[in-house]
Every structure is written in C-alpha cells, then in structure tokens.
User: Fold Oxidoreductase/SDR, dehydrogenase from Acidomonas methanolica NBRC 104435.
Amino acid sequence: MSSRTVLITGASSGIGRGLALSLAAPGVVLHLGGRDLPRLEAVASACRAKGAATEIRALDVTCAEAMAAWIGEAAHPRLDRVFACAGVTGGVDAPDTDGAAFESAAQVRRMFAVDLDGALNTILPALDIMRRQPRDGRGDRGRICVIASVAGVVSYPGTPSYCAAKAAVDRFMVASGAYSRRAGIHLTSVCCGFVDTPMVAGHRFPMPGLVSTEAAVRSILRGVERRKRRVVFPLWLVLGSRFMDMLPIRLAELYYTRQPTGRPGAFTPLDERS
Assistant:
C-alpha cells in the first residue's frame, strides 16, 4: 500500500514511541495514543518531521468507551495496522513478618486493567472495524499486534499479576488468530524479554538479554509484515522460560525465588511510577 493508517497505544514512550518513529513516512497516517500529553506531542512532532500525517489522543486504555470512540474515529477511510503497546509492570512487596510477600489489591487490579483490559479495549474495537473493511491487494483487512511478554509463559513469583495478564493476552491473540486470518485479519503477539524502555528503568535487578528499543521495533515490524502469529525475542530466554514452566512447581520456585527478579521488592511499585 502506498498509504496506510496505523494506530498505536502507549505511543508516548518505549516500544510504542519506537514504532511510531519507525513507521513515520510520507503517505502514512499515524494515530498515537497515550496518557502523557507533552511526551505524546513530542513524538507526534518528530513523526510529522518525517512526513507522516499524525494525530494524537490523550486517553487511558482502561476506558473502554473512550477507546472505542477513538479507534472508530481513526478508521477513516480504513484502519490497516494497530499496535497495542500500553502497559505497566510491578511485583510483590517486601516480605512481611512471616516471610510472605504479596501484591497490593490495587496493584493487581491496575495491572489487569491496563495490561489485559486495556489490550482488549484496543483489540476488540479494531477487530470489529476490520471485519467490515474490504480486503486490500494482498487479501488483508488489517493487522493487530499486541505487546505480551516472556512473563506470559512462566508463573513467576516475583510478579504474579503481570505474568497472568500477559499470558491471557498472548493466548487470546494466538488462539483467535487461527480463524481471524481466514477473514484477512492477522494477529500478532510479541513475547519479548527485557526491552530498554522507561518502563524497566526502575527495576532493581540485572536484566538478562536486555534488548534496545530499536532492535525490538525491528523484530516486531518484521514479524507483523510476515504475518507471524507470535514474535519471540530473545529466543533463548523465551525457550528457557518455556522449559522452566514444564518443571514441577516446587522445583521451578526453588530456582525463581533465588533470582534477583524473584525477590520481593525488586520491582518499583506502580504508585511510585510516573
């Protein structure tokens, strides 16, 4: 296509910002969403400098009505690519007097609201719109990509709700894609390790296999253009995590709880993030 319309959530920083800048070009229409308006405006300005027609919307992905309205407005004359990049992360608090560690109820609910419901608030309206679109010259009605995580393939004691939310998103995308592709709608789940973005900047532990945002964006765009159902990087980390999740739970936990990422208090609490 000489022109295409792309919608990106979480576009004010990290992977969303990287995708916007990489896709910006003459003939491309970008719809960028995020909560930080000044940063969103800066990204939009950089995209316009590269020739892309760019519109921004400051909104929270947890508001289903606002998301549906925005996506509907963006889909004129059509919606070709959607990237759901908005997300938050966090872990269990410091141990209590029993040596036990928990996530606060507020953090668990926020994690599911953003990482799962926020993704669905992006995916479902986009699917509805794409189903009504004519196929393009390649037989496509559209493509939707969601950022999941290597955390979605493990049951990691250090960050339970993040693992659960990302697992749900990944399974939904991979399973739904089996039939949606027959309609020319291709779904992609990105199971990545640590990416050097502001979201991980506050982590208090070493991050094995840390990937630059630029490298992550290249892998994601290559996978989406190849209609891959699941994009994985770094491969060794995801395969190792798959293997660990097949072990007896107690044996896996023995390893996990001895890792820096599995220690209570290693993640920056959500209420300390900007």
Observations:
- Residues 4-272 form a domain with the Rossmann fold fold (CATH 3.40.50.720).
